[in-house]
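In response to a reviewer's request, we include the raw inputs and outputs for one of the modeled complexes. The two entities were modeled together in a single run.
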Amino acid sequence: MGVIEDEIPATPPVPGMQVDVISDKRAARREKARLFIKSPSALIGLGIILFWFVCAVLGAHITPHDPFATDGLSHDPPFTNGYYFGTDQLGRDVLARIMVGARDVLIAAPLAAIIGVASGSMLGLLMGYYRGILDDVLGRLIEAFLVLPLTLVGLLALSAAPADWSIIPGIESSTQTVILVVGLLFTPIVARTVRAAVLAERENDYVQAAKLRGENGLYIMTREILPNVMSPIVVEFTVRIGYAIFAIATLSFLGVGIQEPTPDWGLMIAQEYRLVIGGYWWVTVFPAMAIASLVIAVNLVADRLQEVMEL
Amino acid sequence: MSTTETTTDTVALKLDDLHVAYDVRGIPRPVLRGVSFEIHPGEAYGLVGESGCGKSTTAYAAVRYLPENGHVTDGSITIAGQDMLKLSAPDLRALRSSRISMVYQDPSQSLNPTIKVGAQVVEAFTVLGFSKAEAKVKAKEALHRVRIADAQQVLDRYPYQLSGGMQQRVVIAMALACDPQLLILDEPTTGLDATVEAEVLDLVSTLRQETGAAVLLIAHNLGVVRRICDRVGVMYAGKIVEEGPAAEVFDNPQHPYTVGLLRCLPRRGANKVERRLDTIPGSLPLIGTVLPACVFQDRCVLATEECRTVAPPATQSEAGRTVYCHHADKVSTLVAAPLQAPVTGDGVGEIVLHLENVSKTFKQGHHEVRALVDVDLDLRAGETLGLVGESGSGKTTLAKAILGIHATDAGSVIELDSQTLAGLTTARTRDARRAIQIIFQNPDSALNRSKTVRAILERALQKLAGIRGQEAGMRLASLTDEVRLSPRHLDMRPRALSGGLKQRVAIAGAFAGGPRIVVCDEPTSALDVSVQAAILNLLADMQREEQASYIVISHDLGVVRYLSDRIAVLYLGRLMELGPAAEVFAGPHHPYTEALLSAVPSVDGDPPDRIRLTGELPSAINLPSGCVFHTRCPRAIKGTCEALEPPLVEVSNGHMMRCHIPIDELRTLQHID
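The model returned the following structure tokens for the whole complex.
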């Protein structure tokens, strides 16, 4: 196995330092995985995500109490009556509801990110590859779209969405609308990133060579260019998951997202944040910390992934 | 020049048994394995060798400017009597700012694009402690010193508004700000045109005499080193294998590696018809490999058991030459590739490609840039046409027009086998597309890094030859065999291949559909000389086997000459001279060709009377009147050349020239009998 040139710094330029790299794709991937786990912050992030993932999968099986059971409008503070995080105004266990609430976020956020990244990549490929009028028109549209505040578009779309519709079985229709709206809102942002990567990539001679071979645009975009812009797309995907968690919580908070009685972090805050002044802080603070922990964890992983991918 | 005994005080730079290692994943990998040499004040020392041999590392180590993971593990560095390895950080900084300067390869990257040239040059003086006002005066003087006539105008511009040659002068002016005693030039002319390169090299030579600075030049181009260096050190795998006066080393090499390196070059008018180029078997060792006592042993034909175990002693000989080889006395027995019986096919084949009135105009805002003007050309089967000219002369535009990447202007005719071709490749038939293919300069960019070699070549076969499945598999096997790739390379990705192997894959791809014409755009400029030789041999073989015609674009006239049967010289989009390669190179030449030829530094030494082109390539937006070359032509006839554009006339059989000076007069002027 040859020497990986990555670890020889580029500055100052040392032209003589090029070495033959005898490695295949698998070795390169293994190398990236090795570099990834070398970062403690990424490991912490991964650990937190794993924790929420276990909560989401096992749900009510591991919660100390039934998340839906009411305990006589108790509104207990933390560490009373066996409720570590206290209870809400209906007397439901906050800890249990937070743990179960991870499920919707962990389904909705990645799905929204997938929709955003998939459609954004498609647009970005088209714009970056064809440029010209297509790029100009779509570019302006995207700029216009980016000006709109996320919450406003979300509110409008969600209030306009039919109440009962379903594409993905097993997910509530309100959640599905949230996924779609957030995914749609991410599309232009992803498109811009991918477009920039494609613009740089299309200057390579292999694109010219493909044209001279008589390949059509679709083939060049999907088979020649796409594999080489996968790094920014993967990074964008992880970054988008972080934003999606945030966006979904925001929409739930505003009351247009995930609906009762589904336990949801944003919704929990929305229902009781006015009571914080009255001393009932725990129903707001704990779900907020849950959101923060997951967003930070995803970002820790995304940051490290970006570093590793861009090597 | 003199290499008599000197004390360390008078030595500008002295390296003694320098060892440098780079830490890769915590393991130190040796890169320099005992480099020793001295540079005396006023002397120019050249370091040559293939990429990866440690030239640049030596230079960076000398000024303690190694990347973070690089360490000097042994040996000493002395600059102007001071031990560099013992200097404290402030002392080191002081020494660097007052006595040492460096000039890097790409001038456009050495200058900040957002700051005016003036501010950058002034800064070079203010850091030395001059006041703003003094520095401004000094900056102007500095530009005059590097022969920039209109200094104020240059100072008021941004770097991008200057040509590459001008930028490099500015960088050199800044490097000279501190009156350095040691000037390190790292590939200072790579990427510049031959004419500009000649100017920069002349400048370096004169400045060296003026300032008395010692120069350390790093270059892979042996001609450049020969032109300005007094002494030269040949490096291989982190060791100097031979050292001595530049002319002596190049004319009479004593180390097997130097001999091999020099024989790889297409020199002295070598042509593919007469001889194959020598190659050095094997490849450079990877960083970190354990090498035998003589680092070159694995690739040396003279190697014996002794070379593996006993480090070759320094053999000093007359005239300050040192060779590190056990068998330096046997070097004369190394045989060069024999001359081959000229392989001429039936001489002149059918006309494959016919160009008539090919023009290309680019729109730049409201201006029209005429990149190609009425080019008429014929290309015959199995023939190679070399395109020569400075950048901006239209070589690449012409190639792209032929390939159908650019649509040509109305009225341009491109015929393939007497069939008129559509302008753009998308409008051409599959047969036309497969007939004209290209080999790009940089295989890293030309090969899709996410695909395996097999996927790349199979797709080429499918689209160009129209075959798939078992038939494609058989053709793939014969194709890889033809370009001397082994089957195990097929499942690798380009990243895992060396530069030479990658270029072989690119060549295989171009030949997949049995092309009639292959455009070779700087096919070897990204490669080392020993690899270049192998690729040039391969191109010659492929042409013989496939009867393809080549259009070769290269700034390296040795390469063009080696491959070409005919040469076309372009200037500002116009054909200035067109003729059989031997005649164009032997002369009488067009004055522009003459200037181009004499600008190229030769490893065999330069003729005493070189033509020097002054001035810059005129802007294509605002073309000179009459003959477009008259503004720079050393032989221009006053009154005629600026008024009338000369026609392209046949001066001898098949040799066309666009010049007012009669051919016989050119013959006298150029001393050709």
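As requested, we also summarize the result in words. The longest helix of chain B spans residues 194-211. Chain B is about 30% helix and 20% strand.
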